[in-house]
Design goal:
The protein is of the alpha/beta class and 290 residues long. 36% of the residues lie in helices and 19% in strands. It has 10 helices and 11 strands. The chain starts with a strand and ends in an 8-residue tail after the last strand. Bound molecules: zinc ion (2 copies).
């Protein structure tokens, strides 16, 4: 059984456990490939990103764990890099100096479309109150405008940046179950999805089946939704499994559900970051924690 997680966080950013503890938990759970993906927004930092003063320490720590445990587990050093147009991007040219094994490109915050507002960044990923406050301040409560800007920014990131995995593709859904600021069944939303899937398919990037929202009880299912996953399948977009774990207990959380969702959409293969590049593995030989 093949088992991997390329999306995990540690005490270097907003995770609860040290890298060493994550490695021990991974070995115990029979994970064969573990990718560290600290939140990064180089050359900026926030309270939940890897500090710019600790990049060298992060890389040294992961590389020494890689060497120490190489007989038992394959460890990769990556980043979950934010995309904020004109500010920071998940692009190999920006991160080349750190020689990462891979990059995840993610959007957690959107820049205000209007310079008149003093509330410049809207957190898509924040607490319910913060997401609601940003919607009111930045978009005057216009959910459709906010969601359309989100998908436009995803497409811009995918088509303009050189990275490997698209992180939690429809994170915009995270607080919609409580705030109801858009309807996934409306035509305009479906058109945004279709256009985004076409852009991803052209890029050759991998999309992750991210169980992190389930683990933290923010959402019932995966990112992406079943509807979006079916569209991705129809356009032959490769997918991988990721837990987006912020603690050792969640390292392979919800993998059974993720595999079931992939099968429902039609997928027969899951992709891995192999030693010789991207590798397609038959879904029946991909493991969960049990
Ligand atoms: Zn993220
Ligand atoms: Zn993450």
């Amino acid at each position: 059984m093949r088992l991997a997680s390329y999306h995990i966080h540690t005490t270097f950013c907003d995770g609860l456990d040290t890298p060493e503890r994550m490695v021990k938990a991974a070995i115990k759970a029979k994970v064969q490939e573990l990718g560290f993906s600290a939140h990064s927004a180089w050359p900026l930092t926030t309270e939940w990103h890897l500090s710019t003063t600790r990049f060298a320490e992060y890389i040294d720590t992961v590389r020494s764990l890689q060497e120490k445990h190489k007989k038992r587990i394959r460890i990769l050093c990556g980043f979950e890099a934010d995309y904020i147009p004109g500010v920071t991007a998940p692009d190999s040219s920006i991160y080349k100096q750190f020689s990462p094994d891979y990059l995840i490109g993610s959007i957690h915050m959107l820049l205000s479309p209007s310079r008149k507002t003093s509330f410049g960044l809207w957190s898509v990923d924040g607490a319910v109150e913060d997401v609601a406050h940003g919607l009111a301040q930045v978009f005057r409560g216009n959910g459709k405008r906010a969601v359309q800007l989100y998908w436009h920014t995803v497409r811009e990131m995918v088509s303009s940046c050189d990275f490997d995995i698209v992180g939690h593709l429809d994170l915009i859904r995270k607080r919609n179950g409580v705030l109801h600021f858009f309807d996934e069944n409306e035509g305009w939303y479906k058109r945004e999805l279709a256009e985004t899937v076409r852009t991803i398919a052209r890029s050759g990037k991998i999309v992750e089946l991210n169980t992190g929202g389930m683990a933290r009880k923010a959402i019932d299912g995966l990112y992406p939704s079943d509807t979006l996953l079916s569209l991705l399948y129809k356009r032959n977009v490769p997918v991988t499994l990721s837990s987006d774990a912020h603690c050792a207990d969640d390292l392979v959380f919800g993998y059974d559900s993720a595999l079931a969702a992939a099968r429902r959409a039609g997928y027969q293969e899951i992709h891995f970051l192999g030693r010789d590049g991207i590798e397609a593995v038959k879904i029946d030989t991909v493991g969960s924690s049990s």
